[in-house]
TrEMBL record, chain B:
This is Peptidoglycan glycosyltransferase MrdB. PROSITE patterns: FTSW_RODA_SPOVE. It catalyses: [GlcNAc-(1->4)-Mur2Ac(oyl-L-Ala-gamma-D-Glu-L-Lys-D-Ala-D-Ala)](n)-di-trans,octa-cis-undecaprenyl diphosphate + beta-D-GlcNAc-(1->4)-Mur2Ac(oyl-L-Ala-gamma-D-Glu-L-Lys-D-Ala-D-Ala)-di-trans,octa-cis-undecaprenyl diphosphate = [GlcNAc-(1->4)-Mur2Ac(oyl-L-Ala-gamma-D-Glu-L-Lys-D-Ala-D-Ala)](n+1)-di-trans,octa-cis-undecaprenyl diphosphate + di-trans,octa-cis-undecaprenyl diphosphate + H(+). One of its GO terms (biological process) is cell wall organization. Its EC number is 2.4.99.28. The gene is mrdB.
Length: 650, 374
């Protein structure tokens, strides 16, 4: 069978047919290869640009780089706010498969409070998934070591060093510098919108806060956020398919924020804090340089350490700050208190200026005052009165209430309101702190609006001794004191003296730098100032013991504010009332008398009488500032004076 | 005339050592060029890993050994053993269906001391069997012989298709059909077969194709429909090739592959790495080497002394072409994604050994010729 078939086989014909088939096959092969090359030609030559772009987009990412925040210095160049590297546990959401599982496992190694995780998840929800976000900050070195050993279990999680704000003087300056906090979604949107608005014409679309996670929440950090923040930079990086950065291709350096230089004197601030801590005092002290309106010290006690807030404060620690003493509360700028007798010099000036009284006006003080046709007695602090012939100087020196009851009624609320407004009461001092309160400088309009009642003469009587509806901030009080020291010029209070960037300095120029009060020929003011000088002097000055043997001449005024109203015939007795109803002790003053270098206001809550409690504190503050802090530049002069006076007594 | 000249050359070469070792020098040269190219690209695609290169070298070595061994076997012996070879292969395929190990959703592996894919055996067994069957018949084959040949081809093809392994089954079908084609299948049959295929395609789509296979075809037709899912491979490989441009980004500098945007970069998609780093120039060089190998394969087949040698040699050569055409077409976005490596370039796999075995057969055909009348 096989053989028969083979016989039919035509070898020659088969061979030539096979040859043809091979040629056909080769033609097809060459044709198809040509087709492949045509395809690659299309991809690699014709569409090359498109694919090159796509390939670049795959690997290249532009990411923002946060600028370094500006530093804050005191007037002597001491660094008050700096940036320090701290270690944080950070997560790149994009690189984490199961976020909940990862966080759960991280908690086996680290303590992370629930609320921190909630915050983190909220933050992650709205921001780019390829950025890194901190879930735990302030890692200790031990924690860094623990994580490093276990890092391979946590893809997308890493320990990163980042710059965080650090305040070397902690609680001492918290009510001046304020603090930073995590930027919220609303803040971010607001900053971004502001940014877009500002750059609309320039066409800049890169957002300033793209790489920023913290923002100034309070104090100077908040007020000067714009200047401190700096300009965002950018980085062109090559990443692999998992978004991991392989290398940096290009970098546009961010521009650091401006540095801020304060009028503030760190030594003075520390001294005041120390003194108040020794006394266990709650309250505020504001010291200003009368010739500039620069704030030399601004202390509010109690305070807290802002460094606790770096990287998020735990709710436990936060609760500790919510005590009745209210350390979070900035008494110097937000606290509003009755000014009490400290405004008597100002009232006297208004009375003299408006001609309601003259230097020779005398009244009889039986120990009380009453309005015509009314038998209510407004009592003087001195039960038996200050005598039958009290003039304005004596009234200030001894803080005679009756004289000022009488004066305020004669002036009337309208003129008091107008005059006191010129001293800055009821208005912002212009201080560079957003949180500033203005207190209440009462007027007829104010009472009608706020209370829905008409103004009564009785209201005016209380205004005469700085009580009633009138409240002021320690800042306003210090500024009103500086106005007296400065012969009627009222500066806007400022913490910041100048800004600097790359060694270029720019001074701080507030919008409204000062107001001038009409002081006539100056005699009214001189009389008031002379009276204030006598307050600190024997025989009758209410602050005479506090300033006994002072090496400089001081002008001052004490104040003791009633917190609880006392019934008609009741005697105030500190031992009988709860501490929170004890009188507030106040003192205002400036020194040296001829060339004032410091004007201050002391406000101590529930500390008792101003003369016995606030004035001694003011004395120590002034001693420190005038005799120690300023000594380097004035030492020769002072020692000469001392020698001279020694010689005279000998 | 071509025959005569080459016969004279053969006479001269006969005395050499390589000839006695049954090695065809030009073919060996082409294969070595491909292997060298492969090592270069595997090193780059594998993230500059020498370990991968070493493993690939070991496989090439094994492939060379298998090639040499098969080169010693004369076509006559091969033809004699063909039926046994084929039947054992079919047996393994059946065994895989019932006892095989599955991986990635397909049953392809069998473990008899060594773990291997029986479908690899069939890549050789099918063309050998069909060639052995048709070699003694009058050619072009009669209708009856044609039907028997088709049965020989389609039985293993269907068995492999239901594993399922579409790529390999297509290759095996192709290798069998190529034998029939070279045996002188009449053009009218070819044309009508193509016509029937066009009608059958939609029917296959609805009744026999697996979901993942349909998905691949759909993705191929419109990769952008699922850029991060199944379309990702195609999009990224086209970006890689396209961004390479005329001259390429340079060896080790392909960002698509080095930064791992390209999946399967050292195996099935290695052509994209080559295209990205060596550009169109590199691709043309690669295709030129391939063409040279194919030309040499057809040349050897033309000189084959009997029908078996000629049919087998030409079919194996053309199957080699199908391999590279399907792979490059897939990576370039011309064909749907089918799991086929780029022959002798892609890293790993039994495919290297099988391919080298087929080149061994070609060398055997070339070197076992009795002297022609000169």
């Amino acid at each position: 069978m096989l053989k028969r078939r083979e016989a039919i086989k035509d070898v020659g014909r088969e061979t030539s047919m096979f040859f043809v088939r091979c040629v056909v096959a080769l033609v097809i092969v060459v044709g198809l290869m040509g087709f492949l090359i045509a395809r690659e030609f299309k991809l690699q030559v014709i569409d090359h640009k498109k694919y090159r772009t796509q390939s670049e987009n795959n690997r290249i990412r532009v990411q923002p780089v946060a600028p370094v925040r500006g530093l804050i210095y005191d007037q002597t160049g001491k660094l008050l706010a700096q940036n320090r590297s701290i270690f944080a546990l950070e997560i790149v959401p994009e690189q984490v498969g199961d976020m909940e599982d990862t966080i759960e496992r991280l908690r086996d190694f680290f303590q992370i409070p629930d609320e921190r995780i909630e915050k983190f998840l909220e933050q992650v929800k709205f921001r780019p998934k390829f950025n890194s976000y901190a879930i735990k900050s302030n890692l200790t070195e031990e924690e860094v070591a623990i994580f490093s050993a276990n890092q391979h279990f946590f893809p997308g999680v890493s320990v990163e060093a980042r710059l965080e704000r650090y305040y070397p003087y902690g609680a001492t300056l918290v009510h001046v510098l304020g603090r930073m906090g995590a930027i919220t979604q609303e803040e971010l949107v607001r900053m971004d919108e502001k940014d877009l608005e500002a750059n609309r014409e320039v066409g800049v679309t890169r957002l300033r806060y793209a790489a920023t996670s913290k923002i100034g929440k309070l104090g100077l950090e908040r007020y000067y956020e714009d200047r401190l923040h700096g300009e965002v930079g950018s980085e062109k990086v090559e990443t692999d398919v998992r978004g991991r950065i392989v290398r940096v291709l290009e970098r546009e350096e961010p521009q650091a924020g401006q540095d801020i230089h304060l009028y503030l004197h760190l030594g003075l601030q520390q001294k005041i804090t120390e003194l108040m801590n020794e006394l266990g005092a709650r309250g505020a002290v504001v010291a200003v340089d009368p010739s500039t309106g620069g704030v030399l010290a601004m202390v509010s006690q109690p305070a807290y350490d802002p460094n606790m807030f770096t990287g998020g404060i735990s709710s436990k620690d936060y609760k500790k700050l919510l005590t009745p003493e209210r350390p979070l509360y900035n008494r110097a700028v937000q606290g509003t208190y009755p000014p009490a007798s400290t405004i008597k010099p100002h009232l006297a000036f208004i009375g003299l200026k408006d001609g309601v009284i003259t230097p020779n006006t005398r009244i009889a003080d039986p120990g009380w005052f009453s309005l015509p046709n009314n038998d209510h007695r407004y009592r003087d602090w001195k039960r038996w009165g200050h005598g039958a012939t009290v003039d304005v100087m004596q009234a200030i020196v001894e803080s005679c209430d009756t004289f000022f009851y009488d004066l305020s009624v004669r002036l009337g609320i309208n003129r008091i309101h107008e005059g006191m407004t010129r001293f800055g009461f009821g208005q912002k001092t212009g201080i560079d702190i957003v949180e500033e309160k203005i207190g209440i400088m009462p007027s007829r309009e104010w009472k009608r609006a706020a209370r829905g009642e008409p103004w009564y003469n009785g209201d005016t009587v209380n205004i005469g001794i700085g009580q009633g509806f009138w409240t002021v901030t320690p800042l306003q009080l210090a500024n009103a004191t500086a106005v007296l020291a400065n012969d009627g010029i009222r500066y806007n209070l400022q913490l910041v003296k100048e800004f600097s960037q790359d060694n270029r300095y720019q001074s701080n120029t507030p919008v409204m730098s000062y107001h001038q009060i009409n002081t006539g020929d100056g005699s009214w003011l001189d009389l008031v100032k002379e009276s204030m000088k006598k307050v600190a002097e024997p025989p009758r000055g209410t602050a005479r013991s506090a300033f006994a043997d002072a090496e400089y001449v001081v002008a001052g005024k004490t104040g003791t504010a009633q917190v609880k109203s006392i019934a008609q015939d009741e005697e105030y007795d500190a031992t009988k009332i709860a501490e929170e109803f004890h009188d507030n002790a106040l003192f205002i003053g400036y020194a040296p008398f001829e060339q004032p270098k410091i004007a201050l206001a002391v406000m101590m809550e529930n500390a008792g009488g101003g003369g016995s409690n606030a004035a001694p504190l003011a004395r120590e503050i002034m001693d420190y500032y005038l005799l120690e802090a300023l000594k380097p530049e004035q030492s020769d002069e002072l020692t000469n004076d001392e020698e001279n006076s020694d010689g005279a007594t000998n | 005339m071509a025959l005569r000249t080459s016969a004279a050359n053969t006479h001269k070469a006969r005395s050499s050592l390589l000839w006695r070792l049954h090695i065809d020098v030009p073919l060996l040269f082409g294969l070595c060029a491909l292997m060298g190219f492969s090592l270069l690209v595997v090193y780059s695609a594998g993230g500059e890993s020498l370990a991968l290169v070493e493993k690939q070298l070991v496989r090439f070595g094994a492939g060379m050994v298998v090639m040499l061994m098969l080169a010693q076997v004369s076509p006559r012996t091969l033809k004699e053993w063909a039926p046994l070879f084929f039947v054992v292969g079919i047996g393994f395929l059946l065994a895989v269906l019932f006892f095989g190990e599955s991986s990635k959703g397909a049953q392809r592996w069998i473990d008899i001391g060594v773990r291997f894919q029986p479908s690899e055996i069939m890549k050789l067994a099918v063309p050998i069997m069909v060639a052995a069957f048709l070699a003694d018949k009058a050619l072009p084959p009669s209708f009856k012989h044609l039907v028997i040949s088709l049965a020989l081809v389609l039985t293993p093809t269907v068995l492999i298709m239901i594993q399922p392994d579409l790529g390999t089954s297509l290759l095996i079908a192709a290798s069998g059909f190529f034998v029939i084609f070279f045996a002188g299948l009449r053009w009218k049959y070819i044309v009508s077969a193509l016509g029937i295929a066009a009608i059958l395609a939609p029917i296959m789509w609805y009744f026999t194709m697996e979901e993942y296979q349909k998905g691949r075809v759909l993705t191929f037709l419109n990769p952008e429909s699922d850029p991060l899912g199944s379309g990702y491979h195609i999009i990224q490989s086209q970006i890689a090739i396209g961004s390479g441009g005329l001259y390429g980004k340079g060896w080790l500098n392909g960002t698509q592959s080095q930064l791992e945007f390209l999946p399967e970069r050292h195996t099935d998609f290695i052509f994209a790495v080559l295209g990205e780093e060596f550009g169109l120039i590199g691709i043309i060089i690669l295709l030129a080497i391939y063409l040279f190998v194919i030309w040499r394969g057809l040349y050897i087949s033309l000189q084959g002394q009997d029908s078996f040698s000629r049919l087998l040699g030409a079919a194996l050569t053309l199957t080699f072409f199908v391999y590279l055409f399907v792979n490059i077409g897939m990576v370039s976005g011309l064909l749907p994604v089918v799991g086929l490596p780029l022959p002798l370039i892609s890293y790993g796999g039994t495919s290297i050994v099988t391919l080298m075995a087929s080149f061994g057969i070609l060398m055997s055909i070339q070197t076992h010729r009795r002297l022609h009348s000169a």
